[in-house]
Design brief:
This protein is α+β, with helices and mostly antiparallel strands. The chain has three helices and nine strands; from the N terminus they run αβββββββββαα. α2 runs antiparallel to α3. Keywords: Disulfide bond, Immunoglobulin domain, Membrane, Transmembrane, Transmembrane helix.
Length: 192
């Protein structure tokens, strides 16, 4: 019974493979770039993905080039794989900047598309952050000395961190930093 089941499964698999092959042979041969690749700007340490959207009959083979040289797969750094729509290049080490080209080829010819990968340096603890920390400490001390310690320090702190996050080019929504009232221009005077 087991041999009969295996034989039946192999027969069905062979039939489906032959049917798919005959259908592909009856379709017209073509190669097409379905969409151009997009340029990518990413921070150091982030993964970048380039998608090469191509189709063809017979299915095209895809080669990746970086600055006109073949891309070599390296574990935990650069990898690519064929997908249903074409190919995907994943770059884990985004110090690799440059022009990446996808070249798809079959018996009808070849198509290609190119994208530029750029990196930005957004360090988790940049030097100018020390200035912000100093200002926060100073504002906290000023707020503790003043009569109104609840308002001025919180407003100033919100503005400082809003400026830092925007300068770092991270996509943090501005709604995360509500602006209640403008910063007071001077500390409140003590009653005499």
């Amino acid at each position: 019974a087991l041999n009969l089941t295996l034989s039946l499964a192999l027969t069905i698999t062979l039939f489906l493979t032959l049917t798919r092959t005959l259908m592909m042979l009856n379709r017209p041969h073509f190669i097409r770039l379905d969409a151009p690749m997009n340029n990518i700007t990413t921070s150091v340490g982030q993964t970048a993905e380039l998608l090469c959207r191509v189709s063809g009959n017979p299915p095209p083979t895809v080669r990746w080039l970086k600055n006109d040289a073949p891309v070599v797969q390296e574990p935990r750094r650069v990898s690519y794989r064929s997908m249903l729509f074409g190919s995907r290049l994943r770059i884990l080490d985004t110090t690799d900047t440059g022009y990446f080209q996808c070249v798809a080829t079959n018996i009808q010819g070849s198509v290609s598309t190119t994208a530029k990968l750029l990196k930005t340096y957004c360090h988790p603890f940049p030097p100018h952050l020390f200035l912000f920390l100093f200002l926060e400490i100073w504002l906290l001390i000023a707020a503790l000395i003043s009569a109104d310690s609840s308002c001025s320090w919180q407003l100033a702190q919100r503005k400082i961190w809003k400026q830092y996050c925007l300068s770092c080019s991270k996509k943090i929504p501005l709604s995360s930093f509500p602006d209640p009232d403008p910063l007071p221009t001077s500390l409140p005077k003590e009653p005499t």
